[in-house]
Amino acid sequence: MQTETYLEEFKNEGKKPFTLRDVAWIAFVILGSFYAWTQYGGLMDQYEIGILGGTTVGLILLGRLWPSLQTLTVSVSLMVMLALWTYNSHGNVITANEEAFFLKFLLSSQSAIMWMSALFVMATATYFLALYNKSDFTYKTANFMVWAAATFGLVGMMVRWRESYIINFNYGHIPVSSLYEVFILFVVLTSLMYLFYEQRYKTRALGGFVMLVISAAVGFLLWYTFGKDAHVIQPLVPALKSYWMKIHVPANFVGYGSFSIAAMVGVAYLLTERALKKNPESSFASRMPALEAMDDLMYKVISLGFAFFTIATVLGAAWAAEAWGGYWSWDPKETWALIVWLNYAAWLHMRMSKGWRGAPMAWWAFIGLLITTFAFLGVNMFLSGLHSYGEL
Amino acid sequence: MTESKTPTSANAVPKSMKKKQPNQILNFFGSMNLAVTLLMMLSIASVIGTVLKQDESTQNYMIQFGPFWAEVFNSLGLFHVYGAAWFILVLLFLLLSTSICVTRNTPSFLKDMKQYSEKLSRAALQHQPNNTTFEGTVSLERQQEHAVALLKHKGYKTKTHIRDDGSVTVAGLKGKWNRLGYFLTHISIIVICIGALLDSNLLLKYRELTGSLEAETRTVGLDEINKNSWLGPENLSFRGSVNVADGGKTDVLFLPYEDGYLAQKLPFTIVNKQFRIKYYDTGMPKSFESDLILTAPDLDEPIVATIAVNHPLHYKNYAIFQSSFADGGTTLKLKVHPLLSPISNPLELDSAINKVEPLKTPMGKFKVEFNDFKMHNIIPATDEEKALTGHKMHNNGPTIIFKVRNDQGKAWEYENYIMPSLQEDRLFFMTGVRESQAEPFRYLFIPADANRKKDRFFKFLTLLNNPIKFMDLFTTQFPRTPDVSEKTYQLQTKLIQQLLALFRSKGFNGITEFVKSNVPEADRKQVSDYYFGQTSFALQTLYLEVLKEEGVIKTHSDEISEFDKTWFEDALNTVAGLSAYGPPMYFEVASFKQIQATGLQITKSPGKNVVFFGSAMLITGVFFLFYVRQRRVWIHIKPNAHTDLESDSTTSSSEITIAAKDNRDLPETTTEFNGLVNRVKKFNNNNNHA
Q1: What range defines the domain where residue A139 resides?
Q2: For a FRET experiment, which of A61, A115, B277, B588 has its CA 20 to 30 Å from that of B566?
Q3: Is residue B130 part of a domain?
Q4: Do B59 and B24 share a structural domain?
Q5: B622 vs A306: CB contact, 8 Å cut-off?
Q6: How confident is the model at residue B313 (pLDDT cuts 50, 70, 90)?
Q7: Which residues contact A334 (CB under 8 A, 6 or more apart)?
Q8: Residue A207 in this model has a pLDDT that exceeds 50
Q9: Cβ B658 vs Cβ B132: under 8 Å
């Protein structure tokens, strides 16, 4: 049989070679996690050590899947180390963020988050400019700005984590507990997911649209900071003191982020379709990706979001069972999570089983964002319940 | 929930379906349209449930919507959406629809997971979503071997079929777990629903329908609870709560049920040794903990454990959670000051939180219900205080919350601060009153005297309540002078007395009102100026007398301090506000001993693990569905008729048809298909030139 011969022949082709860079990446992540464990392991319970281990494996795999993430991780790590070192050399007092140059202007959580905000807004404008002038350089600039913004966002979160312990050891917690903190998580995760799909689909034309949602979130963040002093680090209420928060919240925001991207791709789809209807030679449409590609992207992003939203809701139920004594209490936030879930379940059914495509699905994805936004923000603003942690 | 994809031709219509007449009813219940409609109904019902506050008292709904709409909404079950019969019915229909869908799809999907459809005709292949036909140049045998190897390399499982005409089909199949994803997700919904049903109160509803169970709506002691409201340990699942005072114990749990509650007997006893709250420096609670001892007949040693929020105690299939806290019957020593009494005679009362005390007064019979005691009342500090102390929060100290109810049943709710608090640099004892829970408290500020007490205020008030004493005082302080006639003097003192009475009952506003309704407009200003002057004069006289009695001043003409002046103004404001204070009593807490109670939530939830098992299935299934694609490829090699197989085994001409199909229509399918076709073409070209 020649089949084996052929198989032997095929065996090595197409396989990604295991390079030095991969070895370095794996070593970097493992060493980094090990260092974190030696430094802070004493404060972790067994579940949190498990989460650290899971994060290590996950990060290694994600970095292999998407090499740009490696660069991001290294930059963030270096900047955070610099910030922590500066705090340390100033005697670990929070006022160092007013004295030390690097902290004051770049790396304290507040400065980093301001840089992030500015860069996101600038990136939005730059992406639209690029769409207008079709310049590759402008696109590259916009893309770089998003990377830089995401870097600053992550640095801001990491440093804030440390700052919460510096302010008062009892306050210390991962910065995903208040509405202010999760907004940063939201913009960072959404932008990273966008960057992934930008590379994967080799299209930058959707950048401006996705960045619109991010800029809106940044606008809210700034109002929340300057209007309501929401950036002040507060201690945790007893109900939030749990390792569950470390997995439940990020999983949720992968979902929210994906749904936002899908909605904005939907908007881009509808605009392109309209332009094409008016004029099949439309110059706007010629700059946008093909309709089928956008339709497909919408599906991909929604299925990713749906998968993570499912995980997040189940994790939430597991946490509720431990904190509130019941996995389901029909609390407004829970109920709205169910509504969001049902909405996207119906969306996916219509696409997968009934074969719906195009404009109706784009509209639906956009309406989905409105529902998601209500679940995310509206519930906190208008309805009270067990989940009222971030109030406006 | 039906997958209505274009079928893979040969197995387009399963034979079993052809034989049977499609069942109309089954089709309806298993249809996608019904499923989506049900999902939408569920969503809308859920929205209603979050917008309309659930499970509140009938009275609150009446106030909110009016009697008519409250009744309509209530009969629609909108106040208990998630337990309403129609809501359960929607869920059951969804369950039915999902079950039918799964049952109907199982045979064809199972078949689809196994079969390679290698026998499809060339014509059928050319009807697949991706297909191409081109000329091959390699011998049939090598072509076939290469095709198998290529598909295997790409992760397909293959099956080769040799036809009678000498042509060969290599069929490849991969990603059959995608179908498993379908089963997992849909069955998981059924599993989760079953789990939820296990934890629901359907059995209790049934018992209620048959008449052996009814909710207790009264707040009564354990021995007075309705016999039909008790549940034994045989109850399959429950989730209820109970407050246990420090040092107290319980083996009963209260389950909220309809408009009341049910009492659940527990197969164990829980002792609350101590409940603790720890605070951050901001005044926010940092942790709630209870030291518990659990004893049960079948336990050799009692379980001693400390529970906290997020750290419950598990015992058998029960879980005990720290869910809240309350007052556990703090003991109070009170002084009840009658506000209209002309002599100082406060009533001493020993009571405790959660007790009801009858009060007989000259103003009628009242009942006092002591509802709550709060040790700390923490509010954000003012900017000045923040600058001064560095603390962001300010503690106003303990309060008691109680209701005074008259014999018609009307109640006033009070919130009395036990310690004075600073307002604009002066110390006041705050006391809030309201007539319904819907209103905020209206506060009265009783000024503290130099000793930080209320003694001076009550002395002043008592004197103000005593017209006879006032007359004595007035006539001794300001005897009639010879230039005033006896009659004028009489009239004047009488007027002052009346003005004081008016002020006592309605404040300065009362005097303004009186002038407005009794004096012609032209004279009003003059008269009211005069009246105000006279009233102030009288009040000052009273106040000076109080100061004299206190020994602060020796005679009425002594200079008085700034503090005493401001105190007087504050006291007048307070007296003016007394008219809106409800029954004329003030409850002063002389001393208290705090007793806390821990709020425990205890559950027995046999469905929990079922639900989590279902959830795990759901997550696994979702990933299979989205990230595993079921793909089929066929490589059909048909040797051309003129080729002489015997003479030349390396190069020969054949017609190659490649077709592919994905059970989902995705752009990747075409890309991969093209890649595959190019590989086969390249193989043919390379070997041709060789």
Answers
A1: 3-7+101-386
A2: B588
A3: yes
A4: yes
A5: yes
A6: very high
A7: A316, A317, A320, A328, A387
A8: yes
A9: yes
Q: Does the pLDDT value for residue B11 go beyond 60?
A: no
**Which of chain A's residues have a Cβ under 8 Å away from the Cβ of B1?**
349, 353
pLDDT at B17 over 50: no
Residue B470 in any domain: the answer is: yes
Statement to judge: residues B481 and B517 lie in one domain: yes
CATH number of residue B317's parent domain: 2.60.98
**Region A155-179 average pLDDT:** 94
Residue A353 to residue B54, Cβ atoms within 8 A: no
Residues 6+ apart with CB under 8 A from B264: B230, B231, B235, B238, B240, B252, B253, B254, B255
Let me know if residue A190 belongs to a domain: yes
- Answer yes or no: do B318 and B213 share one domain: yes
Which structural domain range is residue B504 located in?
A: 460-586
For chain A, what is the domain count?
Answer: 1
- Please tell me the distance from the alpha carbon of residue A283 to that of residue B457, in angstroms, as a whole number: 84
Tens digits of residue pLDDT in B448-478 = 998 899 999 999 999 889 888 888 888 888 8
- Mean local confidence (pLDDT), B327-353: 91
Domain assignment present for residue B446? The answer is no
Residue A217 maps to a domain:
yes
Residues in chain A: 392
B132 within 8 A of B657, measured Cβ to Cβ = yes
Question: Is residue A392 included in any domain, yes or no?
Answer: no
Q: If you measure CA to CA, which chain A residue comes closest to B144?
A: A3
What does the pLDDT read at residue B2?
40
Answer yes or no: do B145 and B94 share one domain: no
Condensed to tens digits (0 to 9), the pLDDT of residues B276-310 reads 999 888 778 899 999 999 999 989 999 999 999 99
Residue range B122-157, pLDDT digits in tens:
889 999 889 999 988 888 888 899 999 999 988 899
Whether residue B655 is found in the same domain as residue B538:
no
Q: Do B619 and A234 touch (CB under 8 A)?
A: no
B432: nearest Cα among B452, B447, B409, B413: B413
Judge: A10–B284 Cβ closer than 8 Å, yes or no.
no
- Residues of chain A with Cβ-Cβ distance to B623 below 8 Å are 307
To which H or E segment does residue A82 belong?
Answer: helix A68-89
Q: What share of chain B is helix, strand, coil (3-state, %, to 5)?
A: 45, 30, 30
B395 in a domain, yes or no? no
In the numeric block, which tokens belong to residue B459? 């002395």
Q: What is the DSSP string of A146-160?
A: HHHHHHHHHHHHHHH
Whether residue A63 is contained in a domain is answered as: no
Q: Which residue has the higher pLDDT, A378 or B4?
A: A378
Which of B586, B620, B640 marks a domain boundary?
B586
Q: Check if the beta carbon of residue A79 is closer than 8 Å to that of residue A151.
A: yes
Task: Provide ipTM, 2 decimals.
Answer: 0.92
Domain boundary among B586, B621, B651: B586
Contact A177, A130 (CB under 8 A): no
Q: Which amino acid is at B648?
A: D
How many domains are there within chain B? 4
This model's pTM is above 0.90:
no
Q: What's the pLDDT at A15?
A: 67
- Arithmetic mean of pLDDT, A154-165: 96
Partners of residue A381 in chain B, C-beta under 8 Å = none
Cβ atoms of B567 and B452 within 8 Å: the answer is: no
User: Per-residue confidence at B19, pLDDT binned at 50, 70, 90?
Assistant: very low
Rounded CA Rg of chain A: 22
